[in-house]
Amino acid sequence: MKAMLLIKNGYVMDPAGGTEGKKDILIADGKIRKLTEPMFHPEETRENIQIMDCEGLVISAGLVDAHVHFRDPGQTCKEDILTGAAAAAKGGYTSVVMMGNTSPHMDNADTLAYVSEKGKRTGIHCYPCGNITMGMEGKVLTDFAELEQAGAVLFTDDGKPVLSPELMRQACVKSAAMHKILSLHEENPECITENGINAGMVAAKMGLRGSPRQAEISMVERDIRIASETGAEITIQHISTAEAVALIREARKTNPRIHAEATPHHFTLTEEAVFKFGTLAKMNPPLRSENDRKAIIEGLCDGTIEMIATDHAPHAAMEKKKSFSEAPSGITGLETAFSLGIRELVQPGYLTLLQLLQRMSFGPAAVYGLDAGCVQEGHPADLVIFHPAQEWKVDSFLSKASNSPFWGERLPGIIYETICGGTTVYHRF
Length: 429
Description:
Layout: E1 4-14, E2 19-28, E3 31-36, E4 49-53, E5 58-61, E6 63-68, H1 81-90, E7 93-98, H2 109-119, E8 125-128, H3 144-149, H4 165-178, E9 181-184, H5 201-205, H6 214-230, E10 233-236, H7 242-252, E11 258-262, H8 264-268, H9 273-277, H10 290-302, E12 307-308, H11 317-320, H12 337-346, H13 353-368, E13 383-393, E14 410-420, E15 423-427
Parallel strand pairs: 1-4, 1-5, 6-7, 7-8, 9-10, 10-11, 11-12
Antiparallel strand pairs: 1-2, 2-3, 5-13, 13-14, 14-15
Helix pairs in contact: 4-6, 6-7, 7-10
């Protein structure tokens, strides 16, 4: 018989219920059996009980990331599902959704079966997506029903938009009938000369034309309209422009089926970071202006943007050493996201710690229908235990990749333990 776990004296924050306070948590059979005021429990006298004293620490729901790239199958030299999940657990995540720009793509049941089975070996919840179009070519829709049966929790061609308005409309109709969400990468490549850098002052100084903000704005505007006309539910991924935030804010006044996610790098850095970090600041969509960064923070504050997602995008070191035009876009994010949220959003007073936890756990869980993001009796014992003020140095990663502009920085928020289904999947010591 597996021993029960009693977590004592911790300060519990429940993102789902919006409550917080000092509580004891009794875990049995992978679920939270009891949540009580700190006290002596008769269970403590049992031989089959493990006691964990969390005095001085915060306990909350395991984080949920609805947007990660684990490069598996096809590019496992950069990352694989096992190392990606280890990085996630270190970052406090117990649930992730894997994007489908793999090789082969997640446009068929066999690939989804492969990633799902490998995900079960990680200790955390690794959910597959399904592609919207075959081969992410934007020409033929996938078999949504087949992919849903194979475990797809959402549909996306992340990395590419669905350029055809008619095909997008068809995808919206199909997904609406199935009550599934389309998660959309909103950059029109027809508007972009060089990706990964904002079309602006910084790009001009580097002799590049870059990616204009209209590439995002035009697609967001179009897809909000199509989704509203068809009754579809959509998520605008990794939002980067103030105009797109405003479009989503206006749409959500009448249509709660429009969602948005923001990344830590988009609310932390601006296009000027390219001067300091070079290709480590190259990403799609690109870092933009200070005004855009502030607009994203405002969207997170007022609920326009319900989710923080990392867009964890590992690359080999040699790839990022190429010239700016030749290097791939993207940075790792799972191991630094929570700390950046504390530093950039909580410490300046934009969000409370509980609000940050809501946007990093219950927010995405509620959007995608996952049993996560809560600390309540009867629910999975998926938990993160941390100290929000203690600092750590970014000097190692469990990810295979280290393409992060935050390398060497000291960040607040030490994660001591990540528990998934009542089992420890990351322990700091």
